[in-house]
Amino acid sequence: GTNRGVSRYDRATDDFTCYQNDPANPDSLLEGSVHAVGADENGTIWVGCAKGLNRFNRETGTFTRFINDPNNPDSVSANGIRSILPDRGGIWICTYTGGLNRYDAASGKFEHFSNDRNDPRSLGANETRTVVRDRSGTLWVGTSGGGLNRFDPATRTFERILHDPGNPRSLGGNRVWTLFEDRAGSLWVGTETNGISRSDPTGGLFQVWRNDPQRPDSLSNDNVWSILEDRAGN
Q: If you ran DSSP here, which 8-state letter would residue 144 be given?
């Protein structure tokens, strides 16, 4: 995904096929600013843009567009798509302003999860940045300002895990940018301006690393965008 469309790399030929918006073609990519790409359980490619969601047809090379319709409660809740996670029977979608969505492939409808100030079991914030499912099947959602959220599929509600200034073992910060589960089952949480936090396997207590100008071996910067574990476990 790039700022001028989405490109598919062919390993055999070592070249790219570029898909861009064509204003004259409603079957082209919705627009050029691509923030997320994901494949569902059937291998269908989904592309998230600043202006909506796109489903790619491999056979025709065309896109089906999904945008918010204020008159349709089953449409996607907002057009700014930040992240996509495949799910059995559909996909999870993080949006910039419309909370979390789940698209159900069978019905073609979007289920919405948003913040309700009067409900502490609702999503922590409507700006959602990242969503992952751990090895136990638990769904975790990173929000911008509402901390880390653990989803309860039975009640369709969330448990919010937040930074506590009085607890050094709490989450490092409430603006979560990225999530990653390591081979030991610990959840790593990258935040905006508050470094990186690693949970115990239950998602309770955290160890936090931040930049320390006095230590050259500390985290280089407190804005953490991405986390990866190599084959050696680093």
A: B
- pTM of the prediction? 0.94
Closest to 174 in 3D by CA, of 208, 148, 207: 148
Q: Any idea which residue has 């929000």 for tokens?
A: 143
Structure tokens at 85: 């996670």
Longest pairwise C-alpha distance within the chain? 57
Q: How far is CA 175 from CA 1, 148, 208, in A?
A: 23, 8, 14
Q: 169 and 206 in contact (C-beta within 8 Å)?
A: yes
> What is the pLDDT averaged over residues 41-53?
95
Q: How far apart are CA 14 and CA 121, in angstroms?
A: 49
Give me the chain's average pLDDT, please: 96
Number of Cβ atoms within 10 Å of the Cβ of 19: 21
In the predicted model, is pLDDT for residue 99 greater than 90? yes
Inter-residue contact 197 to 206 (CB < 8 Å): yes
Q: How far apart are CA 58 and CA 229, in angstroms?
A: 31
